Amino acid sequence: MITAADTTKLEDFGSEPIWLVIAKVVAVFVFLVVMTLFTIWMERRVVARMQNRIGPNRVGPFGLLQSLADGIKLAFKEDIVPVMVDKPVYILAPILSTILAFLAFSVIPFGPTVSVFGHHTPLQLTDLPVAVLFVLACSSLGIYGIVLAGWSSGSTYPLLGALRSAAQMISYEVAMGLSMVAVFLTAGSLSTSEIVAAQAGGSQAELFGAVVQLPSWYAILLAPSFIIYAISAVGETNRAPFDLPEAESELVGGFHTEYSSLKFALFFLAEYINMVTVSALATTLFFGGWRAPWPISLWEGANTGWWPVLWFTGKLLIALFVFIWLRGTLPRLRYDQFMALGWKVLVPLSLLWILLVDAVRVLGAQDYERSRLLQIIGIPLAIGLLIVFLWPESEPAAEDAGKSEEDDGLPFPLPPMDLVVPPSPRIKKAQLASTGGRSAGSSDDDSDDGPADA
Question: Is-contact 182 172, C-beta < 8 A?
């Protein structure tokens, strides 16, 4: 049962006393830090379980304090600053990334309006008519911290890692933003609290002569949007299997190779806070936010008071578990495959899905019957999908017939098998030094200019 007290409106923000606003800021900060420490512990334990290991189990009960101990140790390590860095930018980059990571969480709703010492306030720091765009803006500006870190380090690998990370985050941010458009069209708002309210309950519809209850979560109602968002979120946060900016075999540590001590810890903190943020945004946009799932929602008081904070945290932890599951399961993609997935698959699918959702809304507003909608949209879409999946593959060109089996299908040429590598000039110098400046092929009788024996 939904009451007026459960619904949070934009007018409810901005009238709280200053002490309550400060308390909310501190609560969000503490929540993010605790979630970061817990996620690191959970990641190490879950991956250890997948690999038949134990994981951290010494510091604290079940090893829960291991992340805190590691963070304290990292903060007090020696801070090594390379000579060639641009020091002001080098120091500013991790601070910028961390601040923007914290700011993005300020519009995420934790629960309904509650009473705190006699003041009625929403369990949300603030809300905006364009709150979701605010999260995307913080994510976009966070790229500056990564690019500045790679550029200011004065080293090749951090610069390459920063450029790769910028290209990756910008590319997948486009697909992430497009995946949200269908949610905005369906909910009729860009406010996070209003999107949560739009997923309350469900609507009834007649299907094949029977009345059915349509799902309220957009993860079910708008499943293609959720799938595209989930893939884009992994790419946006540089997590495995999309952790290409930090590929150890290619770029050492990526953009933060030259960072140590507290500055490295800030980058580490920003990465995990971004994971929490995109998981919380997925919960808000696609899983009903803080509202209780079925069958808990059958309880009348499930969506009142402080109980919704528990449902929100549970959904958030499940989303974080999926991040960890992917890391322990899938191998890292090649970079060209990764960029092709974003630009050639996710972005076109997002555009087609937006057109389909908008067409259904427009035709539905014109009182078209469901059978008529099926004829106009469903049948052409099914035919198009059949054509795409059943279209025969093209035969290889005549000029490619002579290629070897090893080269077939590779986007880069292979070196010839009979390649002869010339000897290193260092070997020649070492031979000259060992023979006292004479060439390796000359004999002792060729010259008497050598140094005399002592």
Answer: no
CA distance 120 to 429: 81
In a domain, 436, yes or no: no
The mean pLDDT value of the chain amounts to 82
Sign of the alpha-carbon torsion through 8, 14, 16, 21: positive
- The verdict on residue 414 lying in a domain is no
CA 329, CA 309: separation in Å to the nearest integer? Answer: 30
User: What one-letter code names the amino acid at 118?
Assistant: G
Task: Supply the range of the domain harboring residue 187.
Answer: 10-365
pLDDT digits (tens, 9 = 90+) for 401-452: 455 444 455 556 666 667 676 777 777 676 777 776 655 444 444 444 444 4
CB 445 within 8 A of CB 451: no
* Least confident piece of the model among 211-215, 223-227, 398-402: 398-402
pLDDT, tens digit (0-9, with 9 covering 90-100), for 283-328: 999 999 999 988 888 888 888 889 999 999 999 999 999 999 999 8
Q: Is residue 108 part of a domain?
A: yes
Q: In whole angstroms, what is the distance from residue 215 CA to residue 298 CA?
A: 15
* φ/ψ of residue 62, rounded to 5: 60, 20
Is the pTM higher than 0.85?
no
Phi first, then psi: give them for residue 189, nearest 5 degrees. Answer: -160, 160
Give the Cβ contact number of residue 209 at 10 Å: 5
Q: Which residues pair with 204 in a beta bridge?
A: 213
Contact 282, 233 (CB under 8 A): yes
Task: Quote the number of domains for the chain.
Answer: 1
In 3D space, the residue among 278, 280, 268, 267 whose CA is nearest the CA of residue 96 turns out to be: 267
